[in-house]
Specification:
The chain has 185 residues and is an alpha+beta fold. It has three helices and seven strands; from the N terminus they run E-H-H-E-E-H-E-E-E-E. The relative contact order is 0.22.
Length: 185
């Protein structure tokens, strides 16, 4: 999946002893590991929403970018009858879409160049029965040309979130792209 111009500067570095850091998904990535984003958090989120609005399939599904920071994002999709399968829960393709797009936002904002999904794997844990899907993704390891990211997909039902899928993916720099796509100064 192509996500145009998700670019914000240099990637964060690995953890202790040269290995990858194990980020806490509730905390932001180490801001000292990468140059500061040169726009406000509100502008950063608005830029991410502009990218989402240019994706016709995302618009068709009603996807909403709830939060975005370098290496992290939260994407949501309201579950409507049109997005369910014959048993009445969200279609696996919709769950897969939200995981893929969240992974790519996390990887793209960590790599800070235009990116595509190179590969991903998803485990469906339970049927997504509820009002809304919520995907939270973060970059676990960021190199020069790719980022490995993880995502948890929850279903929101009557105010309670339940984990319904887990995904991991590799997000790759688009070949021939060296610029920051206008998102970094």
């Amino acid at each position: 999946m192509t996500h145009p111009r998700s670019a914000f500067g240099a990637p964060p570095q690995g953890g202790a002893a040269g290995g990858p850091a194990e980020p806490d998904p509730r905390r932001p990535l180490d801001a000292s590991a990468a140059p500061a984003v040169t726009v406000s958090a509100e502008q950063f989120l608005a830029m991410g929403r502009e990218v989402l609005a240019k994706q016709p399939f995302s618009v068709l599904l009603g996807a909403e970018l709830a939060s975005l920071e370098p290496g992290r994002c939260e994407l949501q999709v309201p579950i409507t009858e049109r997005l369910t399968q014959h048993h009445g829960f969200a279609h696996g393709g919709v769950v897969s879409y939200i995981a893929d797009n969240a992974l790519t936002y996390a990887g793209g904002t960590a790599l800070r160049v235009p990116v595509v999904t190179s590969e991903y794997k998803i485990n469906y844990l339970r049927p997504a029965i509820g009002e809304r899907l919520v995907a939270r993704a973060h970059a676990d390891h960021v190199g020069k040309t790719q980022a490995v990211c993880r995502c948890e997909v929850f279903v929101l039902r009557e105010g309670v979130e339940k984990l319904c899928a887990i995904a991991q993916g590799t997000i790759a720099r688009l070949p021939g792209t060296d610029d920051a796509g206008g998102w970094a100064s």
